[in-house]
Amino acid sequence: MPLPPRFADLKREIAESYPDFERRVTDAWAEIVKQLEETSEAIKREGSDYIPQVQFDELHNLPEETVQRIRRVGSVVIGDVVDDADAIAWKKSLDEFVSANPGVQGFPGNNKQFFQLYWTKPQVQARSHSNVLATTVWLNNIYHVKGNEDLEGVDLSVPLSYADRFRIRHPGGDWSSFPPHIDSGSIERWDDPDFRSCFADILQGNWRLHDPYELGSRLKAKRTTYKRSDESTLFRTFQGWLSMSETGPTQGTLKVFPDVGLSNAYIILRPFFRPLVDVKSPEIYDPKNWSFDISTSDFPGIYEGGGGYTGPKPNIYTHPHLRLDETMTSLPKVNPGDMVFWHCDVVHSVEREHTGLEDSAVMYIPAVPLTPQNERYVERQKEAFLEGRSPPDFGGGGRENGFVGVGGVGDISTPAGRRAMGFAPDEEVQTPHSQKSKLLAGKKSVSRISHAFRELFK
Ligand SMILES: [Fe+2]
């Protein structure tokens, strides 16, 4: 279904705001389509090996080419962030929590595996684990500043906590609820001027210059203009999870399209083009069979729903050149205590099948830097924590403070973890001018690494 007519006006406004738009994006579209053909071949050839895998204890000393690879792919497996035994114990504790509290909310209702719980002890402990926070600081620092953006109150080296859920997926079953999609913002990617400016290079036809790690415009982007529930309102540099089990391909793990800049370029320009042949025809891949067209309100992959808009949810018909049936790549095998992160623009899905013999269990823990917007969210989240109710972004969980074994402030295991939850502010990181100069200097020097970060790596 096309979106309301005002979105045709939006397309025209965008086209008029960039010089020589039609010619530039038409040239870019042909180049992107060609690049997708080449990149898809490489992804298919390498499979899960296409996704970078590093160890936690080498994060401080990774070769630049590995960091560049992580930037390009947009997803990474980080091994041994937490001891295997700790992660396994958390899984056992979560199983016990769920057994002791049959009234917890989750789905599927008759055999709960995805839980709307935020404040169990293992979750509170994992979010405040020193290595988990250090990992998120490392990821936050992949982002950088290009212009003269207002960085007052921003520090990439001070991690914040975002309370999300966990899943304990049993073998078998057919999970169809998580087809390819992008989190954190839907039509807002085009509709919100600040969010749209994250993709300005693409809209100017300079798609190869697009940098998904540019901080400035990300800080102001509005991800939820329409106030959909269960949609993250704060700025996450990477979404992520901590594995509590051994899980490999076909065992219910995550799949990603492993080239975030390229998928951004294609998805952002897709609404400005219309296929001239049937989408199921082999001719669909030829850019000559596509025409520039801004006359409709159609934004393929964006749907009305949930009181706002959902998606992008690309599929093989709306976005054929992504060749998602072949390029959605399962993560390599992970062990308990390993973490996985993917940039907030990455197209991702969850495997439908789980052919393994054991549960596939993860806690969702993203990378969140200190920003004024994020800090405000954490303040509200803290109140929810103290009252044992669902965090502000999540409506469905209800109250948890009546459950047996729910976590409390005492389960936050580190000072940095307390700071991340909005408790006991660290005075050293509250000097906006020094933060600004550190960020603008852009040096990977020790002086740029804040007190909190050094503490985490001790
Ligand atoms: Fe998602």
TrEMBL record:
Upper lineage: Eukaryota, Fungi, Dikarya, Basidiomycota, Agaricomycotina
Region (Disordered): 423-443
Name of the protein in its database record: Predicted protein
PANTHER family given in the database record: DUF1479 DOMAIN PROTEIN (AFU_ORTHOLOGUE AFUA_5G09280), UNCHARACTERIZED PROTEIN YBIU-RELATED
Alphabetized InterPro entries for the sequence: Gig2-like (IPR010856), IPNS-like_sf (IPR027443)
Pfam families referenced in this protein's UniProt entry, alphabetically: Gig2-like (PF07350)
